[in-house]
UniProtKB/TrEMBL annotation:
Membrane spanning stretches: none
InterPro entries, alphabetized: Pigment-catalase-like
Designated name of the protein: Desiccation-related protein PCC13-62
Signal peptide annotation: 1-22
The entry's keywords: Signal
PANTHER family in UniProt: DESICCATION-LIKE PROTEIN (PTHR31694)
Keyword Hydrolase in annotation: no
Top-level taxonomic group: Eukaryota
Keyword Signal assigned: yes
C-alpha cells in the first residue's frame, strides 16, 4: 500500500512536471518507446537462435547496434516441425518489432543477454522453490522450449498495456497498439500449444506442463510485487485459463519497474541479473542503476 501510494505521488509529480515544464521526464514517449527494446531483443535472440541456430549478428547485424553477442543461446532440438516453424515466425516478428521501434526512436544497442541453459534453469528452480535435477534445459526438446517461451512475451505484453495510457503522442500509441496486438497473439499461440499439453508430464521431472506454467506465473507475480497479474494454465478463473486477464478479461498491465524486477529475477529493479547480467539499456532501466 505504502509503495502504491508513493508511486501514485511520483506519477502525479511527473505529470505536473511535464505539463508545467518542457523538461524531459523519465516517462516521456521516447523513453517509454525505447524501453521495450530490452524485451524485444531478448525475444528476437531467443527465437532466432532456437529456430535457426543464429542470432541478429548474422540475420540483421545493424539492429544489434554494436551490442554484445548473447551468452549461451543455441538451436533447440525440435521434433515437431510445426512448433519450429511457429518459433521461426515469432523470430521474424521480433525482428520487425525491433525495426519498427528503432525507426521511431533512436533507442540503444542490444544489452548483454544471458540466454544460457543455466539462466533459464535458475528461473525454473526459483519457480519450484528447489533445484530440479537434472537442471531444466530450454533447448532440449519441444515442450521445454515452449515452457521457456512462456517466460517472456507475456511480460512484454503487460508492459505495452502499462505504457499505453502514459503516452502523449497519438503516433506513439499507434505503435504500441501494433506491438501489443502481435505480442498478445504470440502469447495466445504459446498458451494454446501448452494448453493442449497441460496434462503432459515434463521429462524427467514427473511434473505436468500446467504446473510449470502455474509456478512460473506465481513467481512473476511474486517478483513484480504488485499483486496478481499473471495466471498459469491450471489455475481456475471464472473465464478459464486459456488467456490471462482480470475479472473483466482485460489484459493486465505492468510498469517498467515491475518488468525489470521480473526479468532480472531479483525482484528489485536496482539489482540486475537473470537474463540481463548488466541490466537493461535505455533511460528508464539505467535510471535505476546507480
Ligand atoms: C509524435 O511523435 C512522432 C515520432 O515519434 C513525431 O514525429 C511527431 O512530431 C510527434 N508529434 C507530436 C505532436 O508531438
Ligand atoms: C533493492 O536493492 C537495493 C540495493 O541495491 C536496496 O537498497 C533496496 O532495499 C532493495 N529493495 C527491495 C524492495 O528489496
Amino acid at each position: 500500500m505504502a509503495i502504491h501510494y508513493i508511486s501514485i505521488v511520483v506519477l502525479i509529480a511527473v505529470l505536473v512536471a511535464s505539463s508545467t515544464a518542457a523538461s524531459e521526464t523519465i516517462l516521456s514517449d521516447v523513453n517509454l518507446l525505447e524501453f521495450p527494446l530490452n524485451l524485444e531483443y531478448l525475444e528476437a535472440e531467443f527465437f532466432l537462435y532456437g529456430s535457426t541456430g543464429h542470432g541478429l549478428d548474422k540475420i540483421s547485424p545493424e539492429l544489434a547496434d554494436g551490442g554484445p553477442t548473447p551468452i549461451g543461446a543455441k538451436l533447440a532440438k525440435f521434433n515437431d516441425i510445426v512448433i519450429r516453424d511457429i518459433i521461426y515466425q515469432f523470430a521474424l516478428q521480433e525482428v520487425g518489432h525491433l525495426r519498427a521501434i528503432k525507426n521511431t526512436v533512436i533507442g540503444f544497442p542490444r544489452p548483454l543477454l544471458d540466454l544460457s541453459q543455466s539462466s533459464f534453469s535458475k528461473v525454473i528452480d526459483k519457480a519450484f522453490g528447489r533445484p530440479l535435477r537434472p537442471s531444466f534445459d530450454p533447448y532440449a526438446n519441444d515442450i521445454n522450449y515452449l515452457i521457456a517461451s512462456y517466460l517472456i512475451p507475456y511480460v512484454g505484453l503487460t508492459g505495452y498495456v502499462g505504457a499505453n495510457p502514459l503516452l502523449q503522442n497519438a503516433s506513439s500509441r499507434q505503435l504500441v497498439a501494433g506491438l501489443l496486438g502481435v505480442e498478445s497473439g504470440q502469447d495466445a499461440v504459446i498458451r494454446g500449444l501448452l494448453y493442449e499439453r497441460r496434462a503432459w508430464k515434463v521429462n524427467p521431472y514427473g511434473v505436468t506442463v500446467g504446473e510449470f506454467t502455474d509456478r512460473i506465473s506465481k513467481l512473476r507475480n511474486q517478483l513484480g510485487n504488485e499483486g496478481v497479474k499473471d495466471e498459469g494454465l491450471d489455475e481456475t478463473f471464472s473465464s478459464g485459463s486459456i488467456l490471462a486477464g482480470d475479472k473483466y478479461s482485460l489484459a493486465y498491465s505492468r510498469t517498467p519497474k515491475e518488468i525489470l524486477r521480473i526479468v532480472y529475477g531479483s525482484g528489485n529493479e536496482t539489482v540486475p541479473g537473470g537474463f540481463y547480467p548488466k541490466g537493461g539499456n535505455g533511460h528508464i532501466a539505467r535510471s535505476y542503476l546507480k
